[in-house]
Write a structure and sequence with these properties.
This protein is an alpha/beta fold. The strands form two sheets. The chain has a five-stranded parallel sheet, sandwiched between helices. Strands 3-4 form a two-stranded antiparallel ribbon. The longest helix is centred in the middle third of the chain and has 25 residues. It is globular.
């Protein structure tokens, strides 16, 4: 049995990736959310808690990973971050593989991967969908978030591959700097085109 067409979905902060992921789900496309997988693995009774506690004592509790405590231990420490990623990434990969097996009959499966380019996750994908909007729209959206400051926003941007580079490396760019209806129409057209090229019985 041939596998589904696998598309990666990514985009910088404030570009509307979550909204596009929801549009895909509404069209019946299975979407694997890498961030949600991490939250599950690190939440109450999450399977990664013992390994994270062993590597970073005092960073977990009944509520799961204490994000601020763990963040303080890995922030600005590349070696500590590597240790954490070595625990988290293989577990997320296993969940993603299981998700793919579960949806093997679908014509299209989407992996929602926020740091797709930053972490080099594109190798096993048939296409990369980049969600993008003009910089002014992005800035307005992000600064409207609770607790966000221009300094925090600038720092987050400095850690992400620039939007222009993401668009250049994309198979398809989904423009969210337009109305929701126009974005939804782009997403529907793209899904229809992929399904047409990859029909399943």
């Amino acid at each position: 049995m041939t596998r589904p067409f696998i598309a990666g979905l990514t985009g910088s902060i404030g570009m509307g990736k979550s909204a596009v992921a929801q549009m895909l789900r509404e069209l019946g496309v299975p979407v694997f959310d890498a961030d949600a997988a991490v939250h599950h693995l690190q939440g109450p009774d999450g399977e990664l808690l013992p390994a994270i506690e062993a590597a970073f004592p005092g960073t977990t509790g009944p509520e799961g990973v204490r994000r601020q405590t763990l963040g303080a231990q890995v922030f600005g420490d590349p070696a500590a971050l590597k240790r954490l990623e070595a625990i988290v990434h293989p577990a997320v990969s296993r969940m993603r593989e299981a998700f793919l097996v579960e949806h093997m009959a679908a014509p299209l499966v989407v992996f929602d991967i926020p740091l797709l380019f930053e972490k080099g996750h594109g190798a096993d994908l048939d296409a990369v969908l980049v969600v993008s909007a003009p910089a002014a729209v992005q800035r307005e959206r992000v600064l409207a978030r609770p607790g966000m400051t221009p300094e925090k926003f600038a720092h987050i941007l400095s850690l992400q591959v620039p939007d222009a580079e993401k668009r250049a490396r994309a198979t398809h760019v989904i423009d969210t700097g337009v109305t929701l209806a126009q974005t939804r129409a782009q997403v529907a057209a793209l899904v229809a085109a992929i399904r047409e090229k990859n029909p399943r019985d």
